[in-house]
Amino acid sequence: MHIATAALALAALLVPAARPLGTGEPVAACAAARPAGCPPPAWSRQDPADGIYRTARAALNDNDYRRAATLFRQITTRHPRSTYAPDAHYWEAFALYRVGGSGNLRAALGRLDEQRRLHPRAGTRGDADVLATRIRGELARLGDSKAAERVTRDAARAARPKGGTASGQVRGACAGNEDDVRTAALNALLQMNAEQAVPILKQVLARRDACSAPLREQAVFLLSQKATPETESLLLSIAREDPDPGVREKAVFWLSQIPTERAVDVLQEILRTSRDDGLREKAIFALSQHPSARAGQVVRGLAEQSSLPAGLREKAIFWIGQQPSAANAGFLRALYGRMDSEPLKEKVIFSLSQMPGQGNDRWLLGVATSDREPLEMRKKALFWAGQTGVSVAEIAALYDRTSNRAMREQVIFVLSQRQEPAALDRLIQIARGDRDPALRQKAVFWLGQSEDPRAARVLEEIIGSR
Description:
By secondary structure, this protein is mainly α. The chain has 24 helices and no strands. α3 (about 85-100) packs antiparallel against α4 (about 100-120), α14 (about 295-305) packs across α15 (about 310-320) and α16 packs antiparallel against α17.
């Protein structure tokens, strides 16, 4: 019956190709291998390789990569005409890649070459090119000069514009697997030789054709992983100047990870000068995550700024609530009293409810019991007070102290969200004996949602007495 508090969900910024896979990752690591995830369930019972495929798939999902590689190899050698054979090359290569070691990595490249030669139309062919690039990156890190040369060449090619792409072309018209390969090449070079990779990343970021925007987003992430004064300057420049909103937003996000006052200055500049509210929201988030004390002061100032659009003030209030501290709690409580906007006051109530242990439960109960507050604010405050641990006795006492039916209904609802026996006792008392039929009906409804056997017995009793 308990209603969960809101959960903070941050947008996932990384794609699998931007993160090299290593041994020891969680179950179902194959989900990171390709956009379609793990091998699909078996689909052809009449196929002579069906049983081997099922066993190989189970081994891969259990992270038993050596066994999976052996079994997928059996499919391609014993049953080369099987419907499972074209993609078995790919999954054997992936399993060998997960096992690791120079010999297995070179064997994995060999399997991908076999697939390219024997099954050029296999469903995993595009993903195979990405995997091959990752494998070469691993080999390069292990000292394979041939692989290192190929990685360097592929990364340099990634920086060059694709043939025939017009600057005005929209992103949707550019979608394809090639960018995944390019990103994998850039990532492999960065892992192998950061000094060599950064100039190539700069070339990628200097491109302005629309089709390169997704690649530039990934370049921003890769750049953020090598924090130097030069990469900081590049991120600052991208946040200000890149023509694509998505690329600018990614740069703004990663500025939150640069612990310098210069990053705070740029984020403030974006808030002052940008007309893109989406970008300004990202800047507020970045400031809220920045370790600088001045960044926190800037966010609090935005929450107070009456000339700022309400949506941006709401974001500032929300992110303050995600940084629990006595100072932030005190600031929000004081801010509430200076506000006239009910939507903003509601945001303050919610943000304070997200800061346990700061005395906010008592403050919320105070708002709920204040006749000077608007009814809706009182109801919101009561709900969140109930969610933050105010005792059932105090909530129940409010029912007796108020004559306002709407507030009494809210008390009934808040009690229904608590699991303590005392909350059910009070609901039973209201259902049996309250003078107001409408309130008795509300209590009966919420008793009906309870799984407590006592509630069922009381409902039977009430029905039988009618």
